Amino acid sequence: MKKIDAVIRKTKFEDVKEALHEADIDFFSYWDVRGIGTSRQGRVYRGLVYDTSTIERILISFVVRDVNTDKAVKAILKSAYTGEIGDGKVFVSPIEDSYRIRTGESGDITLYLQEEEKSKK
Fold it and tell me: Residue 41: which domain range?
């Protein structure tokens, strides 16, 4: 299993969400986050200069089976791309194990509904 964390532009969130659903990633968590980038420039809006060194982004986080890692990463890379500095980053980390609290099951089966549960819904 792999944990995927992606820091993306707020404006690309809906595109990334849709791409992940198309890649069969049906559950993820996300947070509004701020960070410090390497670009140091001021933007002028209505005569006021704003510091853009603090960047508002969204952090998306989820765990997938190893076989779904490439598909999920490619979905994020394609849908979050603008070609400009500050498009974001994707991090992939190994996960040792996962447990379903309700049943006590462990392993990658805990990431998805079992077939019987899917048919009930």
Answer: 2-96
